[in-house]
Write a structure and sequence with these properties.
The protein has 335 residues and is of the alpha/beta class. The protein contains 10 helices and 10 strands. Strand 5 and strand 6 form a beta hairpin. The protein is globular, with a radius of gyration of 19 Å.
Length: 335
């Protein structure tokens, strides 16, 4: 099998993004892995580490500077990225406090991903047959093992109620415990809901490109480093127990979800474009691990049909474009 695929990964300096790049580099069909970073120094260190971890020559890797909080940086990255991108993994993101560009710092990277993706579509760099993955999260629906840490009052409806959660940050509503960790995790959950709705809408507008929302599942990465008390302290303290208790899985397992969605030949026949995938829910799956499952068809109280609601999808796309001043790209038909 010839090596012909160009893969681009955002947020690749550590955690799931880094390990996904490692796995992509070892895949026979991948000819180039392009990573995005805020600074060349971080990029060079990551490429050195990837070359060491894979035994591959550094020429297999390349990087582009990208700050997703900057519209100008995202636009420049569109120009700097390769002329043809076969696989685009939108992994960058964090649970971060504060406000940037009129939206929460957590949501800002999703707006940046919207600017980047629609810019690549408009530039013709994502051609028929390309695949785009948005890193979703199971925080967007109920997970039994995380009860008490997750945000509650996750009622989803169109209009300003939903977007107030990503513009000014989520506010506590009864019966929430009003803990900082719950509020911050709530903002992250709403960010992933709106981002996933946006990319699901792109799937309807761009039939020639395969869009898929994939949660890496429960993985202990740097995302918890800035988590406020007491949630972050608790998760860090019990992280060593999460895998044996079948609540979370190792980072490489989470990264493999990305790799499978991007490289497995018949993956698009198993899950339609625009689907939202994560862990199953049931007596054996009470955490965020297990085989990829459509999150709108879980068949239990954790099922989240709102993640593919057509009205919410169109509404989310309009709002992300408004926040990012994105004109919208012309449609790419199937090849």
């Amino acid at each position: 099998m010839s090596s012909d695929l160009v893969v681009v990964v955002t947020g690749a300096n550590q955690g799931v993004g880094f390990d996904a790049c490692r796995q992509f580099a070892l895949a026979p069909r991948v000819a180039k892995v392009v990573l995005t970073f805020r600074s060349p120094d971080k990029a060079n260190r990551a490429i050195e580490a990837l070359a060491t971890a894979t035994g591959k020559d550094k020429s297999l890797f390349d990087f582009v500077v990208l700050d997703l909080d900057s519209r100008d940086s995202a636009t420049k990255a569109v120009d700097a990225l390769p002329a043809k991108i076969d696989r685009l993994v939108l992994n960058a993101g964090a649970v971060t406090a504060g406000v940037k560009n009129g939206v929460t710092a957590t949501f800002s990277s999703t707006v940046g991903h919207g600017i980047l993706t629609e810019g690549l579509l408009e530039a013709g760099k994502l051609q028929p047959g390309a695949r785009v993955l948005y890193a979703h999260s199971e925080v967007s629906r109920w997970i039994p093992a995380f009860t008490g840490l997750q945000p509650c009052c996750m009622s989803i409806k169109p209009g300003q109620y939903l977007y107030s959660k990503v513009t000014v940050g989520r506010k506590c509503l009864p019966p929430c415990f009003c803990l900082p960790a719950t509020n911050q995790l709530g903002t992250y959950g709403y960010t992933k809901i709106v981002g996933g709705l946006f990319f699901s809408q792109l799937a309807t507008e761009q039939p020639g490109v395969y869009f898929i929302n994939v949660s890496p599942g429960g993985v202990f990465t740097n995302i918890y480093q800035d988590f406020p008390w007491p949630g972050g302290c608790f998760i860090r303290a019990v992280s060593c127990l999460m895998v044996p208790l079948r609540i979370m899985h190792p980072v490489d397992v989470g990264a493999k979800r990305y790799v499978d969605a991007m490289l497995v030949e018949d993956f698009p026949s198993k899950f339609e474009s625009g689907a939202v995938l994560g862990s199953p829910c049931g007596c054996c799956y009470y955490g965020a691990m297990g085989p990829l499952t459509d999150q709108t068809k879980l068949g239990c109280c954790a099922s989240a049909p709102y993640l593919k609601d057509p009205a919410l999808m169109a509404d989310a796309a309009a709002k992300v474009r408004e926040f990012g001043q994105i004109p919208g790209a012309k449609a790419i038909e199937r090849g």
